[in-house]
Amino acid sequence: MNAEKKRLTRSNDRMIAGVLAGIAEHLDMDPTLVRIIYVILSLASIGFPGLLVYLILWLVMPER
Hints:
mainly alpha; 3 helices; globular; transmembrane helix; Phageshock_PspC_N; membrane; PspC; Phage shock protein C (PspC) family protein
């Protein structure tokens, strides 16, 4: 079986950098749902490490 490998890339359907939309496309989820989950988890954590993770992914994830 030749399964096509999905690459994690930033999406063109972006609000800021396309990171969360790219994750949503990779997981076959709705981008709005991923964004809402990200915001809730970021606000629930102490020190907002979600912002740091987002910035790192922005730098590391390639454009589509």
